Amino acid sequence: MGSKILTGWMLVIGPILAVIMLLIEPGGTTDEASFSQTAQNLLESTTLGGITTVGWTVATLAMTIGTVYLARSMQGEEKPGSDLAGLAAVLAFLSAGIIAIDYGLHGVVYDSGWTEQGGDAANAIAIGEAIFRGMFTFMAASSLLLGIAIFMQKNLNQIAGGITALMGAFLFFGWIIPIESDVLDFVGFIGFLGWPIMTIVLGILTILSSRKDAK
Prior knowledge:
Layout: H1 4-24, H2 35-44, H3 46-73, H4 82-107, H5 112-116, H6 121-153, H7 158-176, H8 182-214
């Protein structure tokens, strides 16, 4: 199990690094760009594309593994919400596995040998994007359960726990319900923004808790 200080810094640095990668990523997938256009943009900027691929992987692994460590630290027979924290840890761990697969798919785009053998960069990116969205579903559920466990245990901050659970619920239900709705899209968008923010908040609270325990 990771130390509190390590867990906290992973939760803080992960979302910040993800935002940086979002800003510098060459031709990231957008609603306006097709996967073939995105692939072409990436292939024209292989060095920057490779850097951002690694950066995204490190950022998201920091968030998911940090969540695993935090959730595992909340498990115990006499701790309320222990089962919820345990399930949150499992879901976050599954998300980390998804990220590893996504890294392989995006990384192979820059392998000239793979493309020379007939590999389709656009298809690899499309599949990677589909898999990566599954990570958000698992992490949304993990945040929902973790937030409830934090609220029940009162170990960090009940308000932060409640908001974390709410953002997780927004992201989860806003993305998985197969209904075209502006309301659901907005709910999912709020959850998408709120999840990394609350991840940073939990990281800061974990670091402060670690320093408090050290005194």
